[in-house]
Amino acid sequence: MAGHSKWANIKRQKAVVDAKRGNTFTQLSRAIIVAARSGVPDPAGNFQLRTAIDKAKAAGIPNDNIERAIAKGAGTLGGDHTSLEAIRYEGYGPGGVAILIEALTDNRNRTAADLRVAFSKNGGNLGETGCVSWMFAQKGVCVVSVVVDEEKLLEASLEGDAESYEMTEEETAEVFTEIGNLESLSKILKNKGFKVTDAEFRWIPGNQVEVTEADQARSLFKLIDTLEGLDDVQNVTSNFEMADHLMALINV
Fold it and tell me: What residue spans of 81-231 are helical by DSSP H?
């Protein structure tokens, strides 16, 4: 999982920069709308909603915007009849790298057209449903910062029924579990005194495609950046693996 975790760290750093973009506000607001619609519109009783709100606040979205998104999801915002649906798209990037895209859209045709253009302009192609998803498994991931005692993290992870953990950078770890156990694991880690900075569902690749050429790496980063810049796209996951000097080509 090392390459994938490395990319996840870069995406979190990018999110701080991208929070200034309007599309990031749109993506996070839509995540709140869907979470509120799929469960109770109260963060105290809806872990998915609570997590979406935490991410929105971390990105600097005003409380008024957050409350409005919750009201939209709950159907209590008068005059709003937007219907968003979650769709997963799949395709291939430069070098045959698998790409999985999670989108929230009110217009499937528009979203598919935008994705097709993004792929074709950046050396990839949008594929059929199922063409790459078999390479991935969805897991719950808790990101834990300020880990000074790895032995204690191991004990807490085992108590929380985690599957594995990985130190991704100095004093930061990612703890993996089944998706239905994410909320419980997050609570146990916090109760044990660990700082959980993020809890999310993530697609983990079962196999990786190694990217070894700089031009190919640049094209791949440009494709992923273009995809993530689309309003309807919530998340982009890939199964590439590459050396640190190629990872450094991305503009963080």
Answer: 108-121, 150-159, 182-191, 214-228
